[in-house]
Design brief:
The protein is mostly helical. It has 8 helices and 2 strands. About 60% of the residues lie in helices and about 5% in strands. The longest helix is centred in the C-terminal third of the chain and has 23 residues.
Length: about 160
């Protein structure tokens, strides 16, 4: 696991910065994401597999399908199928035929899948956000939504 002290992540000491520095802010978020990804792999899953477990734990039953997962995460159905198949091989997800549509498949977390979620590395970030006062948490939420929408917008224009 990557360890950093507070000084090494609190500023960009290699540059003189005047005012807000968008690259510095992006690098701080990247460092947090890198720690979480590192923890994800240490638990034997990749980030996409963690995303699938989280999705299946919270999605409405009718949305627990490979195509709904692919749509929600903006990935191809093939990519979603690879992720889901890997989780099924690991015993974390089970597939069953849809009762109303014989062509469709429903996905469920197994007991092991639910247990794995208790080790979700995203909890590290959630716990850090939980330490913020409510007004700062609300601001973080609004900023996160705005930045995420802007990133998606820019990627979709490529």
């Amino acid at each position: 696991m990557m360890r950093r002290d507070a000084q090494s992540i609190s500023s960009r000491s290699d540059k003189v910065v005047q005012g807000p520095d968008p690259i510095g802010v992006a690098e701080l978020y990247e460092q947090a994401i890198r720690v979480i990804y590192s923890e994800a792999f240490a638990a034997g899953l990749n980030p996409a597999q963690w995303n699938a477990l989280r999705y299946l734990s919270s999605a409405l039953p009718e949305r627990r399908t490979p195509s709904a997962f692919a749509q929600y995460h903006h990935v191809t159905r093939g990519t979603a199928a690879q992720t889901i198949n890997a989780l099924e091989r690991k015993g974390l997800v089970s597939k069953r035929p849809d009762e109303t549509d014989g062509r469709a498949v429903r996905l469920e977390l197994t007991e092991a899948g639910h247990a794995m979620l208790s080790k979700d590395p995203l909890n590290l970030l959630a716990e850090a956000f939980a330490q913020l006062p409510r007004n700062r948490l609300e601001a973080a939420m609004m900023i996160g939504q705005q930045v995420t929408m802007e990133v998606y917008r820019r990627v979709s224009r490529r």
